[in-house]
Amino acid sequence: MTDPSKLSVAVVCSSNMNRSMEAHNFLAKKGFNVRSYGTGERVKLPGIAFDKPNVYEFGTSYEHIYRDLESKDKEFYTQNGLLHMLDRNRRIKKCPERFQETKEQFDIIITVEERVYDLVVLHMESMAAVNNRPVHVLNVDVVDNAEDALMGAFLITDMLNLMAKSNDIDNDIDEMIQEFEERRNRVILHSVLFY
């Protein structure tokens, strides 16, 4: 397989705002068939006070969130990068989506922190079997800030480019993960689950 669009990929973070959307943007530009999600109960973004985050329901449009933050304090949310991030997001898709609510099936699910990985695995294990289609769930730790999200998008794309070259990902994935871990000095969590 050399066509990245043949792999169905999901990238998952907590709120479907920063890390998953940066990777979604990058992977889509590289030709991957990609969707992105969050696993949190709600979408949480930093507020003006540390103890008062901006909280939205999944499904609230990026446009609405952008306008809401802009009306609250345009200068503050411009300086901290949230309006820029939301502007990027609204050009990619309509709204943040919650992973636990999707019915889509993927070949590979990439998470960006161990807590999100655990939630994805827990959700997948709790689902009734549909067709026993395998899915590889992988975790690449990415710190939740703009710079690290961009670097994480490069790492995720590098790993998926490696996997897109495989004609039999189910048999080749362990070797590909080991090669990636050694080359990038990263530890990758991996589970094989079934739809």
Structural commentary:
This protein is of the alpha/beta class. Helix content is 45%, strand content 17%. The chain has helices at residues 19-29, 62-79, 82-92, 114-126, 146-164, 169-184, and strands spanning 8-13, 33-38, 43-45, 54-56, 108-111, 134-139, 189-194. The strands form two sheets. A five-stranded mixed β-sheet has the order 2-1-5-6-7, with helices on both faces. It has a two-stranded antiparallel ribbon with strand order 3-4. Helix 5 packs across helix 6. The protein is globular. The two termini are 22 Å apart. 34% of the residues are buried. The mean pLDDT is 96.
Produce a short descriptive summary.
The chain is α/β, with parallel strands linked by helices. It is built from six helices and seven strands, in the order βαβββααβαβααβ. It has a five-stranded mixed sheet, sandwiched between helices. It has a two-stranded antiparallel sheet with strand order 3-4.
